[in-house]
Structure formats: structure tokens, C-alpha cells
Target: Membrane protein involved in the export of O-antigen and teichoic acid
Amino acid sequence: MGIVLKQSLKNTLVTYLGFGIGAVNVLFLYTNFLTDEYYGLVNVILSAATVMMPLLAFGVPNTLVKYYSSFQDGRTSDGFLTMMLLLPLALILPIAIIAYLANDAIGNFLARENTLVKEYVWYIFLIGMAMAYFEVFYAWARIRMKSVFGNFMKEVFSRVGVTLLLVLVYFDVISVLFFLKALVALYFLRTVIMKLYAYSLRWPKLVFKFPPNSSEIIVYSALIILGGSAAVVLLEIDKVMINQFIEIENVAYYSVAGFIATVIAVPSRAMHQITYPLTAELLNSKDAVGLKKLYQKSSLTLFIVSGLLFLLILLNLNDLYDMLPVAYRNGFMIVLWIGLAKLYDAVLGNNNSILYNSEYYRAVLIMGVLLAIMTILFNLWLIPKYGLNGAAIASFSAFFIYNTAKLVFVKFKFNMLPFTSETYKVIALMILVGGSFYFIHFSFHPIVNIALKSILMIAIYIGVLYRFKISEDVFGILSKFLRK
Model:
């Protein structure tokens, strides 16, 4: 776990820096510098682009990680990389033609409830395309075990760019309409920088003699489209569907609550950047012992960190909402439901990496597609009935079913679970800390209240972890820190 911990810690710091900047954007700048309608529009554009991204990427990011380590010959490896660069164009070009020819029909569909969306169909496609190739070049870096810079570009660069653009809007240097155009340019710039970095690690040699197993690779990529699309649908479709049923400003309200809950997923996002290629190597070398060890250690580490974040967010939420505009303050249940879904994600560790890099990926992809359809049906049912809370319940229900299915599948096929006796100790610790602080309320300024409660909770949580050595990896990090 040495390289995992080292790069995961760096990625966690970078990701939290990005989320810190994102928090300023989401909680304060967007909510005060844009109208609720335009903030909702930004979320619809970015969410719809994110939903399109796996399709436009043609599954290449996952395929790069899965197959790259299996090629030992340099020329075959170059042919493989050339194919990975060209493959996304197989869908980007025809989808661009369809979007051009059916622009009005697509716009009318998206603008059924909110006419503001109609003029921005191309923004969705262009950002989706930029996101797709960014992920390709990011995977190009990850296969070289270099994930930190790409993580910085993904989590920090775009958010800093948005901060600068929002400040320019506030001072009337640019209009909101120019802001939306600049947002598209920002995502393209991010992709170009990532491309240059990836090429600095390994400059591509265009070799049009593709690997002998090209048909297998293309089939895998095509199937990964389904898996990637299913995963993104589970994450982003709720915002797109809120736009279809209720006023667009509600997308803004939901997005703020969703962002708060998503902070719980930061450690998972950081660790998966390095555990994904490591899992692929363990599977390729058939190291069952190493795979189980990575599975359980990644699960425990993520559960410890995400569990603490879950408690900090929920128990400080009322004070946080006191600092937001009134319209954004009714999201407690949204944060709770989405937070629980993210916590379940964390306890699965590198489960996704195991499934997508194994020979059983087809069954899992089909399962994911079925559950993505179920998510859409949940949203169709619950949003008109319960509004924003319905969207959150739909997301939680879909994630619960999907994650449970993946958990059972790995147990059945690999005969291993991520849980250990330490997992249940962490659950007991969360109940202890959560129960102790639930009724504690300070009467100072919200920032002071959050700081005081957080310091006390963290001290007790970490103290118990250290005292009882609940995790070897966490104990090792704490020991080094305390010695310093």
C-alpha cells in the first residue's frame, strides 16, 4: 500500500483543495453572483455534458488502464495508444452531425419546462467532448503511475477558472452570456494542458498497425461505454431530470445540497486514481492474496475517512445553512440521502476497479445499465411526487441496489468481502461520536460553531482510532504525524 498511500494522500490534498475552491464557488459565489435561474442553467449544462462524456470517450480511459500493462513490445504498445487516441472520434463525429441536424428537436426536449435551456445544446456537446478527451489523456498519465497533476487539473484548475470568471461577472467586466461561452473555453483549455502533460510522459508514436487483440479491445471499450454511462447516470441524471419537471432554479438548490454531500466522496476519488491501475496489475498477474488485501485495506481506509466526513457534514449542516441565502437552506434530507449513498460507495473500496478489470465486466455492465434505467424510472416517479427530496431518494435507492449487487457479485466470483472486524469497530465509533455530538449546539457565529464542534469531533475520532489501532495504515500515518 506504499505507493497507494503516497499518491492517495497527495491526491486527497489536491482534491480537497479543489473542493475547497468549489465550496466557495457553489456556496457563495454562484449563489450571490448569478441569478438562481442561470445558476440552475450552468448545472444543467455541466450535468448533461457529464452524462454524455462516457459515450463520447468510447470507454477509452478504462480500456487504456486495463490493457496497457499487458503489452510488452514497444511497437504493439504504440499501436494500442494510437488506437486509443482515434477511437473516441468514432462516436464524436456522428453525434456531432446528429446534434447539428436535430438541434431544434433536442433543444425543445430539454426546454420543455424551462425555455432558457434551448439555446445551449451545443454548449453541452462541446463541454462533453472536452471532458471525454481530458479523461483519455488523464488515463494516459495514470498508466505511467502519475495521477497527481491530472487530479490537480480535474479538481482545481477548472474551479479556479470558474472563480475568476464569476468575479469578472460580479464586477460587470463580462456578462453572464459571455461567462457561459468562457466556461466552454475553460474546459477545452484544461484538455489541451492535460494532453501536453500526458505526451511529456510518453510522446505518442502514430503506429496504425493495431494490436492482434484489437477486436477484443474494441468490444471491451464499447461495453465500458454502457458501464461508464450507467455510473454517470446514477450521479448526474437527477439534475437533468429536475429541469424536465420543475423550475430551473430548483436545480441550483439541489446542486448546492448535493455538492455538500459529495465532499464525502473526495477520499474515494483520490484513492481510486492509483488503486485502479494497481488492481489491473494484480488481476493480470492473478495475485489473489494481494487483491484481497488491497480490497480490504482500501475499504477500511476509505470508510474511516468518509465516515468522519459524513458526521462532520451532518452535525454542522444547520450552522452552514445559516450562512447561505434563504432559498438554499432546505436541503438537509438531500444531504442525508446522498451522503449515505457516498458512504456506502466508500465502504466498497476498490470494488469498481476489480469488476471493470476482470473477465466478468460484461455482467456488471449489463447490471449497471439496468440500474441506470431504474434510476431514471425512480426519478420519473419521485420527482413529480416529492420534488427535490424525491430526486435524492431516487439517487440513494439506485446506488443502494447497484452497490449491493456489486458487493454480492465480487463475493460470489472472487470469494472475498471488503469488510473486516475493524469495519464494525468504525461503525461503533461513528455511532459513539455522532450520538455524543448530536445534541451539542453552540451559540456563537456559525463559523465559530462549526470550527469548535469539528475540532472536538476530530480529536475524539482520531484519538479512538489511534488508541485502539483500528487500521494499520491509518495508525502508521498518525504515528508519523504525532512523532513530528
About this structure: The two ends are 22 Å apart (CA to CA). Residues 2-483 form one domain. The mean pLDDT is 87. The chain has 19 helices and no strands.
